[in-house]
TrEMBL record:
<feature type="domain" description="3-hydroxyacyl-CoA dehydrogenase NAD binding">
    <location>
        <begin position="15"/>
        <end position="194"/>
    </location>
</feature>
<dbReference type="InterPro" id="IPR006176">
    <property type="entry name" value="3-OHacyl-CoA_DH_NAD-bd"/>
</dbReference>
<protein>
    <recommendedName>
        <fullName>3-hydroxybutyryl-CoA dehydrogenase</fullName>
    </recommendedName>
</protein>
<dbReference type="InterPro" id="IPR008927">
    <property type="entry name" value="6-PGluconate_DH-like_C_sf"/>
</dbReference>
<dbReference type="InterPro" id="IPR006108">
    <property type="entry name" value="3HC_DH_C"/>
</dbReference>
<dbReference type="InterPro" id="IPR022694">
    <property type="entry name" value="3-OHacyl-CoA_DH"/>
</dbReference>
<dbReference type="InterPro" id="IPR036291">
    <property type="entry name" value="NAD(P)-bd_dom_sf"/>
</dbReference>
<keyword id="KW-0560">Oxidoreductase</keyword>
<dbReference type="InterPro" id="IPR013328">
    <property type="entry name" value="6PGD_dom2"/>
</dbReference>
<comment type="similarity">
    <text>Belongs to the 3-hydroxyacyl-CoA dehydrogenase family.</text>
</comment>
<feature type="domain" description="3-hydroxyacyl-CoA dehydrogenase C-terminal">
    <location>
        <begin position="197"/>
        <end position="293"/>
    </location>
</feature>
<dbReference type="Pfam" id="PF00725">
    <property type="entry name" value="3HCDH"/>
</dbReference>
<dbReference type="Pfam" id="PF02737">
    <property type="entry name" value="3HCDH_N"/>
</dbReference>
């Protein structure tokens, strides 16, 4: 795909709908409104989550104003480009939809089927899934050729990468427009086959899972496991801190996909990971995970 095709297709995108106002959705919407200067509509079935998400988004802008990275005018114009709604039925005319709900194939397929009823022929539907098959999600949509994987990293405003994953049905036009949108959001893209975990989580999650197994086996304390990998291999966070930051429920869901889809015991989720999730200790977001954040 030539760069001319890519920039032409990005120019047609003005209105982006982000479904799911959790930490990923909010980060994606913020970067699309701020860097790409697009109009954003957040849709989340929970009004409480919408309020929480908007408060978080404004907190990030206020922090950047305080640090001199953003002016008050820019903060107001970014916020003016953003609207919210609790229902897909009230969706505006979106040129591009990015779904960022929790990592659940049944829920994602339901949302794609519902979105399909509302969208024009050319609207692209991207999913931020971190491990579920794009081909499977696409088959729930009316126009599977318009569906693609767009996997952002957390925290979205800071992390430069977006993994792009075409499904079996994805058209070249959908791929070109999606690459162009990611570029206009200031991101570098990589492209992966539609296989469980794509590139990032195929490598990252077994590493995190192995760190939890090391903890479970009493090889070392959690602090020593993290310090070894942080200072010994120059990572910004150790694997256990990173797991809490991503969310232990998300880590477990991804390991389960890898385990089920590949059918290889090397991907079995750590018993201790399952135990933390059963206890409701999900990491930073719930106040307790492998570490205590209370
Ligand atoms: N949202 C937006 N910005 C955030 C943020 C958040 N949740 N958390 C931190 N930041 C920003 C801070 O505001 C700060 O920005 P400024 O420089 O403009 O002030 C910047 O990040 C650095 O933050 P801090 O100084 O507070 O802390 P730090 O230097 O320790 O950096 C970090 C924090 C960027 C999270 C860093 O620890 C890091 O890079 N960690 C690893 C992150 C990572 O690996 N992410 C990928 C996870 S895997 C994934 O997302 C895929 C998946 O499917 C599971």
């Amino acid at each position: 795909l030539g760069s001319r095709t890519m920039s032409n297709s990005a120019a047609n995108i003005k209105n982006v709908c982000v479904v799911g106002a959790g930490q990923m959705g909010i980060g994606i919407g913020l970067v699309a409104a701020r860097t790409a200067k697009l109009n954003i509509q957040f849709i989340d079935s929970s009004p409480v989550q919408l309020d929480k998400g908007m408060a978080f988004l404004d907190k990030l802008l206020v922090k950047d104003v305080a640090k001199g990275k953003c002016t008050e005018d820019e903060r107001s114009s970014v916020k003016a480009r953003i609207t919210t709604s609790p229902s897909i039925a009230a969706m505006n005319n979106a040129d591009f939809v990015i779904e960022a709900v929790s990592e659940n194939a049944v829920l994602k397929r339901k949302i794609f089927a519902e979105l399909s009823q509302k969208l024009s022929e050319n609207t692209i539907l991207a999913t931020n899934t971190s491990s579920i098959s794009i081909t499977k999600i696409a088959s729930a949509a009316k126009r599977p050729e318009n569906v693609i994987g767009m996997h952002f990293m957390n925290p979205v405003p800071v992390m430069k990468l977006v993994e792009i994953i075409p499904g079996l049905q994805t058209s070249k036009e959908t791929l070109g427009t999606t690459l162009a949108l990611a570029q206009s959001m200031g991101k570098t893209t990589t492209m992966s086959q539609d296989v469980p975990g794509f590139i990032a989580n195929r490598l990252l999650m077994p590493y995190i899972n192995e760190a939890i197994i090391a903890l479970q086996e009493g090889i070392a304390t959690k602090e020593d496991i993290d310090t070894t990998m942080k200072l010994g291999t120059n990572n910004p966070m150790g694997p256990l801190t990173l797991a809490d930051f991503i969310g232990l429920d998300t880590c477990l869901a991804i390991m389960q996909v890898l385990h089920r889809e590949f059918g290889d015991s090397k991907y079995r989720p750590a018993v201790l990971l399952q135990k933390y999730v059963d206890a409701g200790w999900l990491g930073v977001k719930s106040g307790r995970g492998i570490y205590d954040y209370a």
